[in-house]
TrEMBL record:
It comes from Arenibacter algicola. InterPro entries: NAD(P)-bd_dom, NAD(P)-bd_dom_sf, Semialdehyde_DH_NAD-bd. This is Uncharacterized protein YbjT (DUF2867 family). The lineage of its organism: Bacteria, Pseudomonadati, Bacteroidota, Flavobacteriia, Flavobacteriales. It comes from the Bacteria. SMART domains: Semialdhyde_dh. Residues 3-116 form the Semialdehyde dehydrogenase NAD-binding domain.
Amino acid sequence: MENVLVVGATGTTGKKVVKLLKTSQYFEPIAMVRKESQIKEFSEQDINTVLGNLEEDVLHTMSHIDKVVFAAGSGGTKVFEVDQEGAKKMIDASKNQSIKKFIMLSSMGADQPEKVTELKDYLKAKHNADQYLRASNVPYVIIRPGSLTNEKGTGKIEVGKTLHKQGSISRDDVAQVLVRTLDDDAPLNESFEILSGDLLIGSALDSIYKS
């Protein structure tokens, strides 16, 4: 079993990732929480936690961790502190601990934030974090979904290095993709975009891996 630190475990998408990992026979989730009051929710599900604040030192959160899923987000309130600098701190800590794989939940539009009119600061922060990860020598996968919805997942997506269109995707399906890219047979140092689509997630990811 590999220990996977889920950064942003208390968020809507992060919680889904933790639950999926808990049912896995290969991974053990470690939920990173910011407050002690958030521990109970996970301990009641027999899920281990570690206290960590992205605006402070996070090196201690990496003890006995094999892989990382970064699904944290500031919700637009602290994009520089959390989405950019917080991500950089986790990347530095991962490098220091020789983490096997760092899965970054980014966003469509983060490749060219200067071309968007909405959420420009957020996408610029995501862009900078993505670029920092690429240059870090930490093994990575960067996943850029379209607009996130709370609709029930379909288990089907559209995927591409660049999809050249806008759209949405359920958080259920995004969580599935994040977890599947943790597998050792998934390629490293790749970035791709995902939207709701017609291909089963496994088949869709196989297609991007072979491209």
